[in-house]
Specification:
This protein has 490 residues and is an alpha+beta fold. It has 13 helices and 15 strands. The N terminus and C terminus are likely disordered.
């Protein structure tokens, strides 16, 4: 997270540059609508023993105090967006002079008999106010087995999956006996005024004009590259996806189920099968979709569904790149599904790292064109993409909150207009939690989760004997590049 540099140097009348939002941050504000706020979340389940009172009740006020003390010291939790008007330039990151962490941390009780995951998903979908720091946390009492839950919600403008995990991590401790230091928090300056924003905008324009040069050969080539990349990216979205019984319209309610896997076993299976954990996740998602849609009576014999998968490209931005991957739902064999996925992601990565266009190229366009592009994606994205799948590496060691160990960490990725299904995986302390997030109308979501679990089990079962057939499989594939011990379907 970059610090805000917007304090004015009044002694010398100078104007220090403000920290403006990047375009890839701003477009995340444009994606949202009333029923689909673009927010990510972490659902943590904790051992409540250190916070139990003598009568067995949970000391919720003390948990809130611990969270307030931790949030106060985290700079990223104290900053907000100053939304600008015409002529003021891009919106600005700034410390919030009115920041009070106590106003961002609430508490609630899980209703008797309620499913924690789905209940939490309906809490997560409540929109964050955009005129204050873009996060909130909620302590959840009422869980069985001497446990409590913590829901942390962050707007995608402020963080992507990796940054969101880091923010959640900043509220927790690395050891059970960690001592929270009483670090002074600097007072926030006033928010930048209209005059400050105009001055900063004029200063930036002056710098740009001074450094402007006639269109050189390199600049001309870069312009042509951007046009080509955006054309290539739009080509990915020209083909409509298959029609299924999955919901296109996303309403205000949610369903959430969780698939839990032992991380080391999943990694060993991936290593033996020559695939990444992300490949296994996508293949399992294909199996889960096949199980769900088959049970519904959909024709899955030759069905292919398309998913959007974020990919890191080393660019340093939240959204380095996006891969569009076709999932072979029609393939009945889980190992052949994995082979097809592995081949498809390999091609997509080569294309992405070679500089070919992807749908994130919208962030390189002028603001009016970028906004038009995002409106098109919001309106028609559901006819080009069926679901979203993301895999985020989390902490490898356990975390605590004032001595209370976090037993489980479940990620929750946002849904967007007209795409009513999202799958997110997070590794934590030797466990892999995969959340399957859907519009509330998907009452049979457990079938998808069960299908994913069955595929993960198939991968683990195949791993011990996988190595024997690698050479034969490579000859069968014909390319000599696959390390998977079975032929890739043509």
């Amino acid at each position: 997270m970059r610090p805000w540099l917007g304090q004015q140097c009044r002694r010398h009348g100078e104007c220090v540059a403000l920290t403006r939002l990047r375009m890839d941050e701003l477009v995340n504000a444009w994606v949202a609508d009333r029923c689909t706020p673009f927010q990510i979340a972490l659902l943590g389940v904790f051992d409540a023993a250190p916070f139990l009172l003598s009568d067995g009740a949970l000391d919720v006020p003390r948990i809130r105090r611990e969270l307030v003390a931790r949030a106060r010291r985290v700079e990223a939790f104290r900053r907000r967006v100053v939304w600008t008007r015409l002529g003021e330039g891009m919106p600005v990151w700034a410390p919030d002079p009115a920041f009070d962490p106590d106003q961002h941390i609430g508490c609630a009780a899980l209703p008797p008999g309620a499913d924690l995951a789905t209940w939490a998903a309906d809490r997560i979908v409540r929109s964050l106010p955009l005129d204050r720091p873009l996060w909130r946390a909620e302590v959840v009492d009422g869980l069985p087995g001497k446990r409590f839950a913590l829901i942390i919600v962050v707007h995608h403008v402020a963080a992507d999956g990796l940054a969101g995990v880091a923010l959640a991590r900043s509220l927790l401790d690395g050891t059970p006996d960690a001592v929270l230091l009483d670090t002074p928090v600097p007072a926030a300056p006033p928010l930048p005024s209209h005059a400050d924003l105009i001055r900063d905008r004029l200063r930036r324009l002056a710098v740009e004009l001074r450094s402007a040069r006639p269109l050189s050969g390199a600049a001309s080539r870069r312009l042509r590259d951007l046009v080509r990349q955006f054309r290539d990216a739009s080509a990915d979205l020209r083909t409509r996806t298959s029609e299924t019984s999955l919901p296109r319209q996303v309403g205000p309610t949610r369903r959430l189920v969780v698939v839990r896997e032992p991380l080391d076993e999943v990694r060993r299976a991936g290593h033996a099968l020559g695939a990444t954990v992300n490949d296994l996740l996508l293949a399992a998602a294909s199996g889960g979709l096949r199980a769900l849609l088959s049970a519904r009576g959909d024709d899955v014999a030759a069905l292919t569904l398309r998913t959007s998968v974020p990919a890191a490209t080393g660019a340093g931005h939240q959204a380095g790149g996006i891969m569009l991957v076709d999932l072979p739902v029609g393939e009945p064999d889980p190992l052949r599904r994995l082979a097809a996925i592995h081949a498809a992601t390999g091609r997509a990565k080569l294309r992405l790292y070679a500089g070919a266009g992807n749908i994130t190229e919208v962030v390189h366009l002028p603001i009016p064109l970028a906004r038009i592009g995002m409106r098109w994606m919001r309106r028609f994205g559901g006819t080009r993409v069926n679901l979203f799948v993301t895999d985020v590496p989390g902490p490898t060691a356990p975390l605590w909150l004032a001595g209370a160990r976090m037993l489980e960490a479940v990620p929750v990725a946002p849904l967007v207009q007209n795409v009513g299904l999202g799958i997110a995986a997070l590794s934590y302390a030797g466990k892999l939690a995969v959340s399957v997030h859907a519009d509330g109308s998907v009452a049979d979501l457990e079938l998808l989760a069960d299908g994913m679990a069955a595929d993960f089990a198939a991968f683990r079962a195949a791993a011990p004997t996988a190595g024997r057939a690698v050479d034969d499989a490579q000859r069968a594939v014909g390319s000599g590049t696959s390390s998977l011990p079975w032929p890739v379907p043509q």
